[in-house]
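note to self: dont lose this again. the chain is below, predicted strucutre after it. 239 aa total, dont forget to put it in the shared folder this time
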Amino acid sequence: MAYQTLQQEYLQIPVVTRAYTTACVLTTAAVQLEIITPFQLYFNPDLILRNYQVWRLITNFLFFGPVGFNFLFNMIFLYRYCRMLEEGSFRGRTADFVFMFLFGGLLMTIFGTFVSLVFLGQAFTIMLVYVWSRRNPNVRMNFFGLLNFQAPFLPWVLMGFSLLLGNSIIVDLLGIAVGHVYFFLEDVFPNQPGGGRWLRTPSIIKMLFDTPEEDANYNPLPEERPGGFAWGEGQRLGG
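---
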């Protein structure tokens, strides 16, 4: 019974969030069990271009370090804000969400080449947090019961927390920068005088990930109606 309940809860997680968080957990488990090593995963342009180790373009986003506080902290934030985005502003737009992943990953890969970052998963998490926070500016946040602030300040609070822990803030700044580029091109620039939409999800991605539109006149039976959690406004972080 417990297994069935766990399986049901797992399958209720939106598909992109489920796939990405599962890949991160499995990658970390494989490293912990010494099936693979971080040296096979990190981002290295020379190995990608000269030795054709193209998997590094993906695996460097999947490893957050050994199991510990930093890993759990990143997994909580990744799962929470990835899911809130997918169930919120990207609800019914799986292809657009996948395209945001690809766009953000591409920019981070380019920028990461110049700042010599070998793992970009944390920066990717900050990007997701940034986009969510800008799209929910009126949500009040509580950070571990210590700070109260509006959602748009969350990425900067996380950067300050990283600084207190002695971590480099370059990763956080990269995530914020890429998140801002996406938010500006997707949400701000199209609404400006003379602006336009530069980011358009390719039709092949829409064909692969978007489901056919539901009949607006269809009234589902009670057991078919979507459930889940009330993510978004009113949710408090760390409290």
